[in-house]
Amino acid sequence: MTEALSFGFIQHAIIAGILVSFATGIIGSLVVVNRMVFLAGGMAHASYGGIGLAVFFGLPIFLGASMFAVTAALLIAYLTIDNRNRIDTFIGLIWAVGMAIGVILIDLTPGYNVDLMSYLFGSILAVSIGDLYYMGILLTIIVIVVTFWYRDILAVSYDSQYAKLRGVNVKFFYSLILVLSALTVVIAIKVVGLILVIAMLTIPVYIAEKLSNSLYAMMALSGVIATIFTLSGLLFSYSYDLTSGASIIIVSAVSLGVFLLVSSWRRKL
């Protein structure tokens, strides 16, 4: 593995893995505490419509997917802000329609044969310098937003009614969380693919939640754990010539299993 570090694409993959891990650790914590896991999965699949849009019009993939995902997030926010008990219906609808639009646009693109597998299961080894800039800027925005509005986001995440009584703009922060989740899902697709992105958003967060006593600590620890899983998955995929995205999730899932077994053993003791 030491000799592999001399290759530019491996260096890019490691940097991308670290950036995306901390982004998913922070946003994944918000997704979990707001009970939006299914919503994150819906936006991940809906963003395929943005991939089709980018391919059809010749736009950068990240740009097309981000635009579509943000639009889907704002639409979900508008439809569910006062009717959250029906959120699963709207997510399912946007999930299906987004993927359908993506498939049709790719079919209509003349002379283009898109590698569907790279979007379904990730292509972290194909990360470019431009992708790294995008990931770095998004992570910076996430850190600034969460740091500046931490108390308001905390209030909205755990008790929106109490937050509303305190004068917090619940609609704004609910929409903001959804938009940041959508953008994070898009960059996570580059690492693990849209099918596996839910696992990256939830497994490190679940472990961090059990080991921390505040949302802030949960976010930071989630980022560290996700980084360990991502780099370990990269090493595993390189050693055995396996798909990187799937390897990252397998490492994460096995680690979660070990964590649960150890936790159960400690409780019995």
Describe the fold and architecture.
It is globular, with a radius of gyration of 18 Å. It is built from 13 helices and no strands. It is an all-alpha fold and 269 residues long. It has helices at 8-33, 37-46, 48-57, 61-80, 87-108, 116-121, 129-148, 150-158, 160-165, 170-192, 197-211, 215-240, 244-268. It has one domain (3-268): ABC transporter involved in vitamin B12 uptake, BtuC (Orthogonal Bundle), CATH 1.10.3470. The termini are far apart. The mean pLDDT is 85.
What features would you highlight for this structure?
ABC transporter involved in vitamin B12 uptake, BtuC; 269 residues; 0% strand
Order of helices and strands: HHHHHHHHHHHHH
Structural class: mainly alpha
Total helix count?
13
- Counted up, domains total 1
Tell me the CATH superfamily: ABC transporter involved in vitamin B12 uptake, BtuC
Helical percent range?
over 70%
Q: How many strands, which pairing sense, and closed or not: the largest β-sheet? A: none
Distance between the termini: 40 Å
What is the CATH topology classification name?
ABC transporter involved in vitamin B12 uptake, BtuC
Mean of residue pLDDT values: 85
Share of residues in strands:
under 5%
